[in-house]
Amino acid sequence: MAKTKSTNTKSIKSKVITEPATVAEAKELEETPYWQLTDDEMLLRSPEPDDDYKTSDSWRVFRILGEVVGGFDNLSTVTRGVSVFGSARTKETDENYIAARETGKLLAEAGFEVITGGGPGIMEAANRGAYDAKKMSIGCNIELPFEQMPNPYQTKSLTFKYFFVRKTMFIKYSNAYIIFPGGFGTMDELFEALTLIQTKKIRNFPVVLFNSQYWRGLLQWITSTMLNEKMINQEDLGLIHLTDSPKDAVNFIIEKCNIDMNGK
Fold this sequence. Notes:
- The protein has helices spanning about 25-30, 40-45, 55-75, 95-110, 120-130, 165-170, 185-200, 210-225, 245-255; strands spanning about 10, 15-20, 80-85, 115, 135-140, 155-160, 175-180, 205-210, 240-245.
- By secondary structure, the protein is an alpha/beta fold.
- The protein has a 7-stranded parallel β-sheet, with helices on both faces.
- Helix 4 packs parallel to helix 5 and helix 4 (about 95-110) runs parallel beside helix 9.
């Protein structure tokens, strides 16, 4: 049976753009405001029978390999990294931005390398705190269809084409995660870490949620529904540390990581 192509349209500023059905069609629309084909889109889109690009996936592995090797080379000296996640939309005057900046500074002063996604908002705040302390401030930026500019408070800045390669760097070079209020991307990082820890694919490192008011609804649902339905175990709740204090977040990480900050 022949595969029927579906067409989707989106109106952008009175201009109707047809959603491409194949990578080849998407490539033709790459320069338009809506459709800018990313490397992730090229890699993850299922090929169509008449797709001229369907044979290129095996060659794309070399680009992925190069990005992995580049990340490993650039971050090879990071041994005390802590990744800070949160919304790119958080403004400089927001209390979460202020707290993330303080957290980044305290982490840096405690001897940790601060790692973020390299963008604005909470990422900028944490990088800025480490930069204020004149310590290592790392940004792992990602290429997006609508460009995300790296924030200016980084002593080491990397840019990745593939989300999964970037996420590997966060996991590999982090001793802990601090999760500030954020959206889907923040939730993705949070639950990936919890899943890997729960399934013992990685060591049990500290996962800190900052701002108890923001996370209250999620934690209530996890406790009342997910735990009640036996989708998780009681001990899984212990994988999360909730706090409203930058100092408490950093002290918790120091205690749990049991790192000799004097390098002995």
